[in-house]
Design brief:
The complex is a heterodimer of chains A (399) and B (238). Chain A is an alpha+beta fold. Chain A contains 13 helices and 14 strands. In chain A, β2 and β3 form a beta hairpin. In chain A, α2 packs antiparallel against α8, α2 crosses α10 and α10 runs antiparallel to α12. In chain B, 28% of the residues lie in helices and 30% in strands. Chain B is built from 6 helices and 11 strands. In chain B, β4 and β5 form a beta hairpin. The chains are: A alpha+beta (399), B alpha/beta (238).
Chain lengths: 399, 238
């Protein structure tokens, strides 16, 4: 029989109290781990996006706008004097002062169409430039593929004018499979291919050749946007943006790095909220530990008196309390940790709108357990000292 | 003449409760010799349990000196008194006071917990005393799986496992029926015959015949029963 066995047997045979104590820790640690994992995933996702899009910029039609306020709250943006972007603007990019930095120019026109009884977004693109710029777009299925053949590289295909490529979500929502015939604005199209899931809004889009879509939407030469990408990640994208705006005054250039920075701000705000909430939850968990241990010490007054009467020193009584808290903390924080990373992995992408997976943070296990256990033992100092300082005669009701 | 095991000299204990002073013990003095078995009797509130707690190094007196085996008990620090209790004293409390989540053998091993013996040695010692008290087949039962008499035996086994020279028992048969109570008293008698000094607080006059000497207490003052006579001993005018 040793001190550890006394502590262990108390926990083993008083399961309800142990579970209650543990529950607070499980919830606390799970919340902290989940939040931190999601924040980590968001930062990782942002980093990947900057890596992918950092050298990219988008030219949008320039417009003027004002914010409408009512009663001190902004109700809407009012946009007016919207300029147009056209295919005539594309050569100006190559004639600008920053032409040497420009690698790919990808114009597109976006419009709403009705397919069956559903509204969908149709995007007209130059397939080679579009899919060269975005190599993460890949075909899941393609027509006329013989058994054993692989699907084509999107950047290399010649998309027929009567064909469309459907995003993963759009394919499911509209019930479209490869080879299907579909009527869009009284024109028949054939489904050339279905894209692999990207985990973003682009899964809901339908792509066709730019000229076809311009004709279909009766907006010849018009463009919704022009995406450009520089040769290098370190190219001066802000300088590129200014250079293009000089030659295309009817356009407004937004660098994707800038757009990503907006997202970084959002992530920072979410992080701050996450840290604050994690702190609150940990505090509550700590209070649960404190009140449960105080209650336990009060209930075990006679027991502590017996320990002291048979020769336990104050240190031994302290050790029993700390060992109990330590064991419960280790178990509770372990369960909380795994619960947290599983929750982050499977719920995080939906909550934080991340396209990729949230990685398991196995390196956090030991710090999570150590910090949780250390904090619990620290919080238990008061009840432990109260137990150790108990007058044994009073505890045994001799007085 | 046997050596003195317990020596009380003018022990007084006063409690303060709600501003009032309560004198639980008034200048109590007596000696108990090694190998004696002594019962302390008296009505409720006579101070007998208070005296037991003072002798048990649990409760410092307001004044007076108590020595056990020549050691001035309350000159020791609180932690040293804990060590003293472990080495010198075996306690049998009222209503057994077993730890509910420890088995019989684990309860018996409790006084050995903080000693430097190996777990194997502790277990062997505990098993030996449980066998001595007739509970070798119920070592792994929890207290709520034992009868009152069996729990009392476990409490006695716990008190003697560390081989202390002195056993202090507070109403050990208070919760037991007559037959079981007699069995327990016979056990105490055997332990005394083996050389242990026994000091027992009891209000049951039937228990007296198992013990060699009886001390009576009333209102914190000590009397002594000698040769069948009740003879008051007042060591100091109160």
């Amino acid at each position: 029989m040793n001190i550890f066995q006394i502590a262990f047997n108390n926990l083993r045979r008083r399961k309800v109290k142990m579970l209650f104590l543990m529950l607070g820790l499980v919830v606390g640690i799970a919340t902290v781990v989940a939040f931190q994992s999601i924040i980590q995933g968001m930062n990782l996702d942002l980093g990947n996006r900057i890596d992918e899009l950092g050298a990219n910029a988008v030219i949008l039609p320039r417009s003027e706008g004002v914010e409408a306020h009512y009663g001190g709250a902004m109700t809407s943006d009012l946009t007016f004097d919207v300029k147009k972007l056209t295919v005539d603007d594309i050569p100006k990019i190559y004639e600008s002062s920053v032409a040497e930095y420009i690698n790919i120019v990808s114009p597109k026109l976006v419009g709403a169409v009705k397919i069956g009884d559903q509204n969908s977004l149709l995007v007209g693109v130059e397939t080679k430039s579009e899919f060269t710029q975005k190599p993460w777009f890949t075909l899941k299925e393609q027509v006329d593929i013989k058994p054993g053949e692989r699907v084509s590289d999107l950047a290399l295909i010649n998309l027929p004018d009567d064909s469309i490529i459907v995003g993963a979500s759009a394919s499911k929502a509209l019930g479209l499979q490869i080879g299907d015939s579909v009527n869009i604005n009284d024109k028949q199209f054939r489904v050339f291919g279905v894209l692999n899931e990207l985990g973003s809004e682009e899964d809901g889009l339908i792509y066709s050749n730019l000229s076809v879509v311009q004709s279909l939407l009766n907006r010849p030469t018009e463009l919704s946007m022009i995406e450009i990408s520089a040769y290098c990640n370190n190219c001066p994208i802000e300088e590129i943006a200014m250079g293009i705006e000089e030659v295309i005054p009817n356009g407004r250039v937004i660098s994707m790095r800038q757009a990503a920075l907006f997202r970084e701000e959002t992530i920072e705000q979410f992080s701050a909220f996450g840290y604050a909430l994690s702190g609150m939850v940990l505090l509550i968990a700590a209070l649960v530990v404190l009140t449960t241990m105080l209650s336990s010490v009060n209930e075990r007054t006679r027991e502590i008196g017996i320990f002291r009467a048979v020769g336990f020193r104050k240190f031994h009584v302290l050790s029993i309390i700390f060992l109990e808290v330590g064991m419960v903390s280790i178990l509770g924080s372990t369960i909380g940790y795994f619960l947290g990373i599983v929750a982050a992995r499977y719920a995080g992408p939906y909550l934080a709108q991340i396209s990729g997976e949230i990685p398991f943070q196995f390196g956090w296990f030991l710090p999570a357990v150590l910090i949780s256990t250390g904090l619990s033992i620290l919080i238990s100092l008061y009840p432990a000292l109260k137990a150790a300082r108990m007058d044994p005669a009073e505890a045994l009701r001799f007085i | 003449m046997s050596e003195i095991m317990i020596s009380l000299k003018n022990i007084s204990k006063t409690y303060t409760s709600m501003g009032d002073e309560v004198q639980a013990l008034r200048s109590v003095s007596f000696d108990i010799f090694k190998g004696e078995s002594v019962s302390v009797m008296g009505h409720s509130g006579s101070g007998k349990s208070t005296m037991l707690s003072i002798i048990g190094a649990l409760n410092p007196p307001t004044s007076g000196i108590i020595e056990i085996d020549g050691i001035d008990l309350y000159k020791l620090s609180a932690e040293k008194r804990a060590d003293f209790r472990r080495e010198y004293l075996g306690f049998v409390f009222q209503q057994f006071q077993l730890i509910p989540y420890l088995t019989a053998i684990e309860n018996v091993m409790l006084p050995l917990t903080t000693t430097k013996r190996s777990n194997k040695e502790k277990r062997e010692m505990a098993a030996e005393v449980l066998k001595r008290v007739g509970l070798e087949k119920k070592m792994n039962r929890l207290p709520n799986q034992l009868s009152g008499g069996e729990q009392e035996r476990v409490a006695i086994a716990r008190a003697i496992v560390n081989e202390p020279p002195l056993i202090l028992a507070d109403e050990p048969t208070g919760s037991l029926d007559t037959k079981t109570g007699d069995e327990i008293m016979e056990l105490f008698q055997e332990l005394n015959e083996d050389g242990l000094t026994v000091l027992m607080v009891t209000h049951n006059p039937d228990n007296v015949r198992y013990l060699k000497r009886t001390i009576m207490m009333k209102d914190g003052i000590l009397f002594q029963d000698q040769d069948g006579l009740v003879k008051p001993i007042v060591t100091k005018k109160v």
